[in-house]
Amino acid sequence: MQEEPTFFHPSSEIDFSKNRLPHWEQVGATYFVTFRLFDSLPQSVLKEAIQRELKSESDDLLEAQKDRLKIRENLLDNGIGECQLRDPIVRQEVLKVVQTMPTKVWTLVIMPNHLHCLISLNESRTLSSTLQTLKGISARRVNQKLKRSGSFWAKDYFDRIVRDRSHFFRCARYIRRNPQKAALGTTEFTLWESGYVSKLLTGAR
């Protein structure tokens, strides 16, 4: 089992794809990934928030994209939608699926309407195929558990290739702090950390 994460290699090939969001993939890389429930971020709510907060377009495209990402993250933390993941039994079903996938899971937090994780892939798997399988299996199990049908996860996901150890640390710390940031009670989320991440964050404020 992989003992330490592998990071972005500037000289290695990168695969680019785009669905609703752009995705950058590199063989064997480590990713910070976010995916959410289908009803957690209605486009009407997102559009209104962006128009309200970004009254003037930034000349810096990267900064404008970062601003929009921050708005999305804040909206998710507001707990929009039915928030089926608030149920600890449902979260446990999702956690079991994530931990049985052919990936190295470093840390994850399951929030009421979304999930953040840090994962590394082996060279035989792509991020898109891994997440498609993960979301498909977990959606079927949760729908059976809740005796419901229809969409569970939103179709797309957000990902970042982790650049280096410092970037990994910041992502892991963000995941640990997300429930507190969203003012959740202890029964409303599930946080899991590997021994590597727990040791890395020891003493972090």
Count of helices?
Answer: 6
What proportion of the residues is helical, as a percent range? 40-55%
Poorly predicted regions are: 58-65
Beta-strand content bin: 15-25%
Order of SSEs, N→C? EEEHHHEEHEHEH
Structural class: alpha+beta
Report on the biggest sheet.
5 strands, antiparallel
The whole-number mean of residue pLDDT values reads: 80
Overall, the morphology is globular
Strand order of the largest sheet: 6-3-5-4-7
User: What is the CA-CA span between the terminal residues?
Assistant: 29 Å
Total number of beta strands: 7
Overall description:
It is a single chain. With 205 residues, this protein is α+β, with helices and mostly antiparallel strands. The chain is built from six helices and seven strands; from the N terminus they run βββαααββαβαβα. It has helices at residues 43-53, 61-77, 88-100, 127-146, 165-181, 195-201; strands spanning 15-18, 22-25, 30-36, 103-110, 114-121, 158-161, 190-193. Strands 6-3-5-4-7 form a five-stranded antiparallel sheet, with helices on both faces. A two-stranded antiparallel sheet has the order 1-2. Helix 1 (43-53) packs across helix 2 and helix 3 packs antiparallel against helix 4. The two termini are 29 Å apart.
Write a brief structural summary:
Helix content is 41%, strand content 19%. The protein is α+β, with helices and mostly antiparallel strands and 205 residues long.
